Amino acid sequence: MGSDLTTGEIIQAFWARIDAQDWAGLGELLDPGLQVHYLHTGERLRGAQFVQVNQQYPGRWHVTLADLVEHGNRAASRAQVSDGSVTYHVASFATVRDGLIAELTELWNTGDVPIPADRRLTALRRPG
Fold first, then answer.
1. 126 phi, psi to nearest 5 deg
2. Where would I find the beta strands (DSSP E) of 1-128?
3. Would you give the distance in Å from CA 69 to the centre of its chain?
4. Could you give the C-alpha distances from 77 to 6, 9, 11, 31, 65, in angstroms and in order?
């Protein structure tokens, strides 16, 4: 991956390759020293481990990139990852160096977290 792409374009390619299950292509976007931190589990992974975790995750998942903000070599994205019955939401924060993702922090959750009873206001209720 060349550094002629913007940080945002690199992150768009990152999500597109995960959606396509293009694991070799995903690896091409990652710095060899990539450090990944999953805030929700406390795991810390390196580049090859990150690709392996994604490749070995059971099921066929599709990504919808919902939001992307970039500033220089940093980007924040919000995506939905779904197999059609379960949908995860992920906030990702990336640092790109020399055209490759060098640092990635992610926070994942499912969309089925109930609203606490004391916050169930009619005007703020989720659809469905």
1. -70, 145
2. 30-38, 44-46, 62-71, 74-82, 87-97, 100-110
3. 13
4. 14, 12, 8, 19, 7
* Tokens describing residue 14: 């990152």
DSSP 119: G
Query: What are phi and psi for residue 88, nearest 5 degrees?
Result: -105, 150
Q: Is the pTM of this model over 0.70?
A: yes
* pLDDT, tens digit, 9 for 90 and up, residues 60-99: 999 999 999 999 999 999 999 999 999 999 999 999 999 9
Question: In this structure, what token pair is assigned to residue 44?
Answer: 């810390």
For residues 105-113, average pLDDT: 85
Q: 124, 126, 94, 125: which is closest to 107 by C-alpha?
A: 94
Give the residue from 105, 83, 85 showing the smallest Cα distance to 36.
Answer: 105
Q: What are the tokens at 10?
A: 């690199």
Res 119 pLDDT > 70: no
| DSSP designation for 53 | H
